[in-house]
Amino acid sequence: MSDEQKARLALDLVLENCKAALSALAQAGTEASQKQDNHASTDFATLRTDFLSILSLLHAASTKIALVLKPSSPQHKAALVPLRDISNNVAALVHSIRLMRQDQGATLLKDYEFVARNVIGAIESLTQTFLTNHASTSNTVKAMEDYLVRTGGVHDLIDMARKPGALPLTNREAVRKRWQQDHDSLVDGAEEIQEICATVGPDELEADDFADDGWDELGLASKQTLSAVELDRAEKVRSMVKLAVLLHKRVLRDVLSPGTHKEDNPFLDALGELSNELLAASDDLISSMYAPQQLMNIANYHQAFRDVVHNLCTTLLRPQNKGLEEQLKDMSLSTAADSKSSAWFATCFEQIDKAGARIESTLAEPNSGSGS
Fold it and tell me: CA-CA distance, 248 to 187, in Å (whole number)?
């Protein structure tokens, strides 16, 4: 068998290993719930170090492959060892994830699985590019461009993962990172609803010569202003969104501050999901405030927002079988925060509930807006 044929077989093996690895990573649900008896629990810091080391080995091997399988002058024999290294380390990366699944929280695992999935997917694409180049050498210039782009993609993903702070050390840190990302978007949403409420009225637009952009003549007004009823409703939504931003910020400070509370993975993972749900519900509700407002959409988005807030309340405050007012008075925050924080959260949830009731009242009034 020639060196070229051996290299082709090695590339095929890398491709198969990448497909198998991606398939294994997709089986997170079945593996995360059961410990493997033949592996002792390993300190996560050690697993993280191993994970980053494997990424470094994949970075080095992909560089070697890019050099020795350059389309203009491939050196097939020199490619055999780095191709074998890539096959082995792709499998090792998945094994590292499997070990992490024994004890770690779901939010932390998602960050590492995301990196592993993207890196392996990029290696798969690079390998496929080499196989395509091997089968057709009619366009060397395009082949050069393709393999350089694919190699750069592998390097960029690994370099990003190896940056300090890119991959969290604890589940709390992973959840906090997600909340911080969502918080910036929540603040953007609060600014958006503020701008909606500050929209000038029709009289002011007519007085401004620069406001006429010509679309009105075609029956396609570019700026539709809120009616008095719609503006009042938007102001009420603005108040509730402002409370949600304050709530989100307080969770970051009191519940997710690093190193202050014992790890509780089910609790933290629930918070990780709720942050994104709150952001999505807030964005939908805010988008429904533009003129002309559609009451059915507003009612649906408003209910979805309140459902997420309710889930946050039950997660943070662990309610008992009591009425809402009794819950807000009697509930104590879980071990993630002290009694002072518990009182603040109870008050905040009460205010959000009242703000929601005020919005709901505008949807039931006879002259409540543009209708459905």
Answer: 10
